[in-house]
């Protein structure tokens, strides 16, 4: 593992996207699973891509905005995964656990960035 935390978080988000793809590809071909799977594929792969944009932000305000988009997509993914789990379409809860951890990380990052932007 690299000592560069930006790289570590980027890698973690890429791994999360791969995990989400695997979840979606394992879903049955039912109306519910296809519908939720399509949404999950979008929201679950988006954080890695938007985090890349955040790293190239033009200002602290732009950075915070892009990080909030990442957080929004992570929350959407977590809720989607929870619905799938409650419908017994998801038995491995590791994606939900990773969603929770990433949400906590991005909440903290946004809070820290907001503090820095006011000093």
How do the strands and helices of this protein lay out in sequence?
Blueprint: H1 5-26, H2 31-55, H3 60-86, H4 94-117
Helix pairs in contact: 1-2, 1-4, 2-3, 3-4
- Number of H- or I-type helical stretches: 4
Please state roughly what percent of the residues sit in beta strands, choosing from under 5%, 5-15%, 15-25%, 25-35%, 35-45% or over 45%.
Answer: under 5%
Q: Estimate percent helicity.
A: over 70%
Rg for CA atoms: 15 Å
Write down how many β-strands occur, each being a DSSP E stretch of 2 or more residues: 0
Give a quick account of the main beta sheet: strands, pairing sense, barrel closure: none
The helix-and-strand class reads mainly alpha
**Quick one: overall form?**
elongated
In terms of per-residue confidence, which ranges show pLDDT below 50 for 5 or more consecutive residues? none
Q: Could you give the distance between the termini?
A: 32 Å
SSE arrangement, N to C: HHHH
Mean pLDDT: 93
Describe the structure.
82% of the residues lie in helices and 0% in strands. The chain is mostly helical. The model has no long low-confidence stretch (mean pLDDT 93).
């Amino acid at each position: 593992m690299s000592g560069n935390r930006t790289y570590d978080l980027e890698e973690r988000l890429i791994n999360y996207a791969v995990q989400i793809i695997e979840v979606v590809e394992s879903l049955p071909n039912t109306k519910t699973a296809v519908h939720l799977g399509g949404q999950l594929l979008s929201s679950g792969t988006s954080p890695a891509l938007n985090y890349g944009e955040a790293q190239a932000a033009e200002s602290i305000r732009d950075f915070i905005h892009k990080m909030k988009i990442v957080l929004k997509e992570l929350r959407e993914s977590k809720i989607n995964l929870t619905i799938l789990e409650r419908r017994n379409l998801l038995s491995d809860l590791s994606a939900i656990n990773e969603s929770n951890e990433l949400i906590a990380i991005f909440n903290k990052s946004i809070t820290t960035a907001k503090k820095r932007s006011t000093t």
